[in-house]
Each structure stands twice: as C-alpha cells, then as structure tokens.
Amino acid sequence: MRANRVAASGLTRRFLLKCAAVIPAVSLGRRAFAAQPSTDISSQDFLQLSQFLVGRAHLDEIVAGRALSGLTLNDPNFPGKASALWAALRAENVADMTHFDEFSARHPEMRATSITIISAWYLGYCGKYDGHAVPAVGHPVDNAQYVAYAAALMYAPTIDATVIPSYSRGRTNYWFYPPKTIARD
Amino acid sequence: MTQHYDADVIIVGSGASGSNAAFELARKGKSVIILESGVWIPRWKIVENFRSSPRKGNHNDPYPNQPWAPSSFSPGYIENTGSFEYLPGMLRLVGGTTWHWAAATWRYIPNDMKLKTLYGVGRDWPVSYDTLEPYYGRAEYNLGVCGSDSEDQSGQMGGLFPPRSTPYPIPPEAETYYFQRLKARLSPSGFNFLHEPNARTNQPWDGRPGCSGNNNCMPVCPIGAMYSGDVHARHTEKAGGKVITDATVFKIEKGEGNKIAAVHYRTSKHEEVRLTARAFILAANGLEIPKLMLMSDIGNSSDQVGRNLMDHTGIGLQFLADEPLWPGRGQVQQGGIFNWRDGAFRREHAAIKHALTNIVPNRAIAERLLSQGVVGPELDRQIRHMAARWVDFSTTFEMLPIPTNRIQPSTTRRDALGIPTMVVNYDTDDYIAKGAAVARSQFAEIVKIMNGTVIEDNTGWQNRDHIMGTTIMGDDPKDSVVNHECRSWDHDNLFLATTGVIPASGVVNPTLTAIAFAIRIADILEKEV
C-alpha cells in the first residue's frame, strides 16, 4: 500500500536524465519566471504546483515525473500552461485551494490545466482511455498514460474503510461488519 | 489397416469448459491435447499489468493481446453491423475468459429449459434439468463453488430450489454490510434477495486460498481464490494430458463417413501442424467456435451455425443512498433481486435479474467530481461521502434466439495469421425492451425506498459477455447445430463445449452450465474413444 516515495531531498541526476529522455520539450534546471511565463516548467516547479493544487505538503517525485511526462506527451503545450498557472498562483498569492473558484474566475483559461493536473494525481492516469480497445505491444490505441495506482489520491479519503482493489487488509468474511466509522459517516 | 492418432481427444481452447473436459478425460487415462492460441502466463504478471495500467476499467487490458491471438477488444477484431455494438470481453490465453468473470455459477432452473412449452416464446432445451443435475454437482465440485443449500434460486422464496443431489461443496461467504442493508430495507416491499452461488472459494480448496476481499475479481483475482480455467489446464497436465500454446486452429478437416479427421493449427511463426484424433471438442467460446466452423465449412447443414446469438444484454442504475452502506468491502458481486427470474410474465417480456455490484467506487466518483470541477478539501470530502453511499445495480435480461443475430467470419479483414476476423450483427427486440421498461419502474421504486439521489438511471443497452445460442442445441437436426449431448448432428465425433449451445438464455450467468455439459461430454467420450 505504500507509495514508492523517495527522499524529498531534491532531484537525482538519474531522475532528471530519465525525464530528459522522455520529454525533450521540458527544460531542466531552469525556473519559470513569475513575470514572464515560460514555455517550460521544471520538475521541481511542477512538483510544487501539484502540491498546491491537491493540497498535500508532500508528493512522490517519481509519480510527479510520470504525471509531467504523460501530460506533456498528450499536450506539447502543457509545460507552458503549467508554468503560467504556477506563476499566476504565486503572483496573486493564492493561499490554498479553497480560493480556487475565485482564481479560476479571474483566469478561466487556466481552469482546465488545473483540473488536468489534479485529475492525474487523483485518478492515477492522464489522457482518455478507450474502455473497449487493448493495445498490442507497441501499438497504442488511445492517449491514456499511467501515473500511479496505490498512490492515486482518490483512495486516500476512504483508506480506512475500503481497499485499493487487488490489495487486501482483511480476512475472509471481514466484510460482514461495517467500517468502525459507520456512525460518523 | 491400423489408424494411428495423435491423441484420443483433441480439445480446441483451454478455458474453463475445455480444460474441465480435458481433465475428466485425462484422469480416466485418455490421451488428450488442448490447443490454445494464446500464451500461458503466471497470475502475478497479470496483476502487475493491472496495477500499472492506465485503463483500470477495461477488463481485457491487463491480458496478453498478440497480433496472432487477438483479444476481442483488439481494435477492429469484431466488426458490428447491427443496432447494438456487441463487444464481449473475451480473452486468449490458457484459462480463457474465466480469468475475469466474477465467478457467478448459477444452475438453470427446470422452467428455463421449457420456455417454449410453458410460455410460448423462444425454444426449449432438448435436455431436462434432471439429466443435467449430476453434472452441475460435479462442475460445482471442480470449481469449488460456494452457495446456499436452503434458498429458492427461482426467486419465489419457497424452499431449496432447484433440487440438488449433492450439497454445495462450500457454504456461502458472509453477506456484506452493503448487501445486508439493501436487503433489510428493500425486502419489506417485496424485493426478493438471493445469495449468488460463486466459484470464489472462502476456504482452502484445491490449492486455492479463501477470498480475502481484494475486490478485484474483474479484471484479475490477485490470489487465485476465484476459479479460472487455468486450474484445470494445470490439472490436465498433471493427469498426463498435453497443453500446446501458440496453436491457433484455423481449419477442421472432414474425413471418411462425415467424421472429423484432423485439426490444423498455425503458430505465430506461421508454421502449420495437422493433428488427428478419435474425437474433437471445440471449446474456444461462443464466437470463435462458430467462426471456425463456418471457415471450415463443417457442421452447418442446419444453416444455424453462428445464428441465434443471445446475451444477457442489460442496463444499469447508480444512485446515492441516504445512509452509509460502504460498497467495496469483499468481492465485486454477491447476489441481488430475483423475483423476475421466472413467471407467467415471460410470455410477454424478458426475465429480469437485478445484480448488486460491489466494486470500490472511488474511480467512478472521482472521475465524476473532477469532471464537475470539484477540487480542494471539498473533493476529498465528497469522495468519502459518495463512496459510502454508492449503490450500483447491474441488471440483465433474457434474450430470445433471433436467427439474424449472428456472427460470421469477415470476408474483408484478417488477423496477423491471415485468419478472418469477425462480423457480428446484433439487434435487441421488443421482448427485452418490454423487460427493460418493467426494470426501470423497479429502479424508481428502489431509489424511492432508499431515499436515493440518482446518478445514472438511463444507461442504454450494455454488454454482459454471456455468449449463447451461436451453436444452438436442439432435438431437430434441421434447426439446431448439436443434439442434447452437445454432439454435432453432422459429425458424430465432434462435440461443442461452450455456452454457445444454450438454446434459451434465461437470466443467469451461463458458464457453470457449459462446464457441466463439458464434463458430460467427457463421460460420453470416455465410452467411445
């Protein structure tokens, strides 16, 4: 059940090289400037932007790398949009996501980018998948990209009550009883 | 002159039906060969494929899909010409589609087998419940089925029904809290709830562990508590039989006296092999078998091969109840409402099964909330609130045999081995449309009793992956493909082990019946080869 969390002590050279190999369009080591939106976004900025959008102090860097790769593969303009979003959020000092509706009312063009990033973290995939097509090896059928499974944030709110499918925490017939929180749910 | 054979019996397809027939023959000392187009891979690889897939809702996605053994979801493999896009999720690997079947193992009831006589619609089966009963018991034993020895499975709330000569090998699993609460609140209004017999053992059985509620029966049980056909493929090998993978049968060869003489298979390297046997069992599912028969021009003097395609084409309902029920604890389905499994109404409209789905609903909920732009702390709060209250019904209907609902080999498309793909024509009719209208009024009542908030109550027709009728069984060679033994009318050493023989679909999952017939075929062949 544990996410493949790595130490939050900065990006490793191997990780950066891996990103570079996957997404040549993403510049590495160059920060976006708040006043001058860039067409790129650094891995570190994407991680921080993600942390803000999903309201988590810590997120897995490996998962962040997959999310950035997938979103960029599906939309070459994504790094620029994400960079502009992060710049605007910082420039306007948006405190947290309870103010998102006001922010996106001021920047309607940034709403979709925000939801795309949040979706990747919550659902564990980005793009759209075809529910009735299966790729043969090397023959993609859609633009769905894997981001995470056990670390997908959609499971966090219920993790004490239900399993992440394919994992188990109970014994046979544990399901006869409701979760302990039933009276409060 | 002595005729030498490669095997006593050759079986095409290694799924639950083929593997059970093979095992029963092998343990009686017959030489058997199973030919499988796909590969044999271990469970853990499928589980890893699932966990790293971006297509979690696509039940075929974690499975092999090679150009020479395409799954039914391989783009273009099934071309539809009818009003309904018929696309069941069929697999090509050792063990077949029972890798992701959720393991419902119902027996048909006697009235299902006399549909024409009792209700004037569809067809009768050429075999009685009493004849099939002992084979149902053996199939339940092989699969480690758990079920109730006291419930009336016709849904009419009488005593134990249908009659059984042997108890279920394993008692039912505990009812989920979700099931208990829905039953407690809906039963007083006359909704009859039944436990669903299932091949998901809840105690050690035949090397399999008891279910521990991983909630992933579809697309793959990670621990093998749920039965899949590879169990008996393995047992067949231990009993001396042989399983050959990467062997796609593309031709069935007729010999003297209208007997089948040989099958021809092709490997992924395009090598061709001819194998002979005293008898042959086709067990490659209700679409692949008629395709192969039509390609080979065999067994079709009735012109019924590939016709009468039936499924339990269905509809769905999702709503939020007014209390936390917490679906997603335990297996993905457990039973449902069966009042309309049988009754005089079948003269007018399809039988109805309302099955309760018990899948962890977080993905469906999060996708929905995000599409509505819900973010921040409210997103987490609503995920929990809705996940606790999510109710999901998967409703299915009885389909009648319609000759124009059919599967044929494509005349324009071929797979990587040069073998034709499929063309399917499938239309729904008034019989299930009337059934669906009745079911929707029942949906409204259910939602009202649960003070529900409807999420979706107008899904349109849905696939249910229960292929029947395409090699229809009957008592007249002029209008059926096989007789009551599942023996081809045209070739007396050819048998079909498939749900495709089922002539009246009823409303229950048909796999146990195909396996019961497969075991009966093995008993018949034991005396003949």
From TrEMBL, chain A:
> According to the UniProt entry, where is the signal peptide?
1-34
Q: Which keywords appear in this protein's UniProt record, sorted alphabetically?
A: Signal
Which Pfam families does this one have?
FAD-SLDH (PF12318)
Q: What is this protein called?
A: Sorbitol dehydrogenase family protein
Automatic annotation (TrEMBL), chain B:
**Domain named Glucose-methanol-choline oxidoreductase C-terminal: residues:** 404-518
Q: Which InterPro entries match?
A: FAD-dep_OxRdtase_2_FAD-bd, FAD/NAD-bd_sf, GMC_OxRdtase_N, GMC_OxRtase_C, P2Ox-like
Q: Which Gene3D superfamilies match?
A: FAD/NAD(P)-binding domain
Coiled coil start-end: none
Cofactors demanded by this protein: FAD
Q: A Pfam family for this UniProt protein?
A: FAD_binding_2
Q: Does the keyword Transcription regulation apply?
A: no
Name the family: Belongs to the GMC oxidoreductase family.
This one is known as: GMC family oxidoreductase
The opening ranks of the lineage are:
Bacteria, Pseudomonadati, Pseudomonadota, Alphaproteobacteria, Acetobacterales
